[in-house]
Amino acid sequence: MWRQHPIVGTLTYAIMAFIALGVVINFWYMFVPLAVVGVGGYFGIQRAKAQRAENAALSARAQAEHEAYMRGSEVGMFGRFPPEV
């Protein structure tokens, strides 16, 4: 019955937060590599997403040029760089 009381739950979370804070303060040097790996992972994921978007745009343009070539259009033959006349 006493476990359902809101003050007990709040105090439990507060004590756990203080313990976690104490661990971080006393062993901060163990968390530095984790932070470096986390930041590196974040930027790695952002770079992968950007490359995926760039590849998708390239693929879409190639598909459009292929379809234009199959229709007989000069755009399909020369793409973005038609010969100067």
Topology diagram in text:
Elements: H1 6-26, H2 28-71, H3 74-78
Helix pairs in contact: 1-2
Write up what this structure looks like.
This protein has 85 residues and is an all-alpha fold. It has 3 helices and no strands. It has helices spanning 6-26, 28-71, 74-78. It is elongated. The model has no long low-confidence stretch (mean pLDDT 89).
Terminal CA distance: 89 Å
Largest sheet: none
Low-confidence stretches: none
Encode the helix/strand succession as letters.
Answer: HHH
> Portion of residues in helices?
over 70%
Task: Quote the average pLDDT.
Answer: 89
Structural class determined from secondary elements: mainly alpha
How many DSSP E strands? 0
How much of the sequence lies in strands comes to: under 5%
Summary keywords:
single chain, 85 residues, mainly alpha, 3 helices, 0% strand, elongated
Structure, briefly:
This protein has 85 residues and is mainly α.
